[in-house]
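Can't attach files on this board, so I'm pasting raw text. These are the components:
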Amino acid sequence: MPIRPFRPLQLPAGLGLNLIVLLVLVLLVAAPLLTILMQTLAPDRIGAWRDVLASPLSPNLFWRPAANTMILGFGVATGCVLIGGLLAWLVVMTDMPFRRLIGFLATLPFMIPSFATALAWGTVFRNGRVGGGGGLLEGMGIAVPDALAWGMVPTMLVLIAHYYALAFTVIAAALATVNGDLVEAAQMTGANRRRVLFGIVLPVVMPAIIAGGSLCFAAAVSNFAAPALLGLPVRMQTLSTRLFGMIEIGQVERGYVLAILLIAISAVFLALGNRLLAGRRSFATISGKGGRARRFALGTARLPLTALALLICVLTTIVPILLLIAASLAPMASALFSNWTLQFWIGDADPAFARGQAGILNNPQLLRALSLTMGLGAIVALIANVIGILIAVALTRHRLRGISEAVSQLSFLPMLLPGIAFGAAYIALYGAPIGPLPALYGTTTLLALALTAAMLPFAVQTGRATVAQISGDIDEAARLTGAGFLRRIGAITLPLASRGLIASLLLCFVNVVSDLAIVVLLYTPTTPLFSVLSYRYASDGFHQFANAVTLVILAISTLAAGLAALLRGRNRPWLSS
Amino acid sequence: MITLNQLGKTFGTAMAVEDVSLTVPEGAFLVLLGPSGCGKTTILRMLAGLEHPTQGIIRFGDTVVADAGRGFTLEPGRRNAGLVFQSYALWPHMTVSGNVEWPLRVANLNREERRARVAEALEMLGVAKLANRYPGEISGGQQQRVAIARMIAPRPRVLLFDEPLSNLDATLRVEMRTELLRVHRATGATAVYVTHDQIEAMTMATHVAVMNGGKVEQFDTPQRLLSDPASAFVARFIGTPPANLIPVQDGSWFGMMPCAALRGASGHGMIRAEDLMLANAPEPGVIAANLVEVVPMAGRRLVTGLVQGQRLTAVTDPHSPLPADLHFRLPLAAAAIFDVQGRRVI
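---
Top answer:
Structure tokens for the assembled complex are below.
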């Protein structure tokens, strides 16, 4: 009689890893969201829903901000698709000169924090209405109407200038696939240009246009900096500024309700976009060797369109930065290019100057903020990427029914969440003591946790690419030579994956350093961060300091982003040929 | 009838096509054959009207469709020509029947006519069942059939194919060759077909233009390409297996086996695989070789050996034993002799 070998209870491989990453995700993502929801549903707090949605207060609390938010969302989405789409078409499909340069510039605005663009706008268009000095235009004797200085119009324009890069990237990539054979096949039928454009090109890129539009919509409704800097002074509220205000003045339940509603609105539109994209006509599956690119001749429109494209790019990238530089040196924004001084950068505290504020490089609080911001950026980037790789390993190597779906969904959820609502959720959960654990409010740990969770979607994506390299043919080829695991990691995987990993670390770092929406609710005077200080300076009317601080953030993030771009190589297929 | 007259095309300073002249009759199946970069696709694109010649004239029948001298080119859509792309270029946002119908719509055909033509084209290619699918939902071979259906539905007089079978697997490729020939016969149109695969050329063409470096090496029927290659390039490119081209120096095979029939030539002598015999032992007219491979093929046996680094292949009787020590017996005369530049001498 054969002896049955004794077998211990077999657990599925990778169960432990899966459970660990699931636990991390629950703590970082699911728990804060559930808490914020539960807290508004508690019997003594459920009234907040009625206050917000159906009470004499609710037009001010919710409906008007919501209307503003929607107008902003649709306006920004439309503007971004128009501008991004126009630039994408020019760069990918026409014989416009400087295509490379414009294609590069059009991806940059997204790198500039939106509060930088908003501050630059104020430098030029600010008027005396809300006190403080006017901007450049008023200094030149041009009266700036309120509508252009404050409120909806400037907020929308600043957000378009900031987010059109998103639409450009998505649409340009789609146009690059339609270029060549698909268009030539249409030309062979004798269809004229118009018909090719409306019958073939537009329908094929429509999914990308919808995707770009819904991304821009979600980004615009979530944005905090632009409406806060340009709208709040004239009491134009969006959901994000209202939510910020509620929590600031201690009406946290109402704030939480607003946060939930903001998440819902943003999610509904992202889901609608996805809905339109899904279904049978997913075009990405068509393969085949791409043909040579054929470019529409612009003819007489060539020069005007080139000038327009260059103007758009320069106005949204270089001009804001130059304005900020000038405005950080000029005592009066109305005289932007005279009496330049380094007082705001390196000056000593002087009661005659800016109410005794020292220049930012002489201000101990700012120096502390600088080291804290950089340190936070580095730590968050590192932790997020380590978790990202673990999640990627769990997802690709050890898929487990049920758990893997939850892990995958949770790790991408933060992408859909407006930063400020995410911040609110973190206050809800970690703001108060949990059992023996102390309250984290006001600690760097809370900032780090929230930012790590927010960076997870990017980190998981990079992690997947890295893991694909570890488990692919390349690694198997190395295994066949007899190289051991560590040796393969050292000789094959790390060299291949390091560029992508370092690029991902740098990009996470940039996102952390230039984030305002998440941290604006979580920071306290003991944990000052650069972006928050810039915002505080600006809302207190110390524009030069705000500009100077913003420039430091810009310099740091530009350096890091540039380095990341170098490491990643030029991954912009629509620029080739 | 398609006529090319001293056709040329330069991209910047690079000469892609140089002085190509040829004529094929109505209903012919012309194959442009050559390695990649030889200019064959450029010619096809000039025929389609997607590229403008920098020299020469193209005529479809009596109609001039492009004349570089006058700077004249007829729009692609007005040439009554259809093109199947290597990538198929199916429009991903339209169904199969939508893809076939769109060109008919552009041509302003009425609804009944369109419906009839779409049905006819899909039927002819055997893809009628896929009418309501999207291109992303069907296989590569089916996409290929749809691309052909889309081309023939407007009933063009000229059918253009840009390496249409290169993305298919081997079995499907053979099947589609037959299919293409059937479609060609059914339409009676003149076909121009670009490929680098000489088997496709030999099986499908009525006329073949073998191209090399932007020029036509030889324009002939498949049979004549085999029996009478105009250059060493053609002789090496054509045939299954291709003929043996043996270096010849001053009238000697390999510079060491003098042969009167070589008449003192230097260059290469062509010996067809079926003219090369196996031998057991060295003797005059016999050369020793190292065995490389033995391939059974359709009741025959291909024996390949290496002589001075040169592969020689003989077609032999599969039942005769292989010599223990491989030797090849050269025939008394070469089938053709090419000079050092590859030009045909004899």
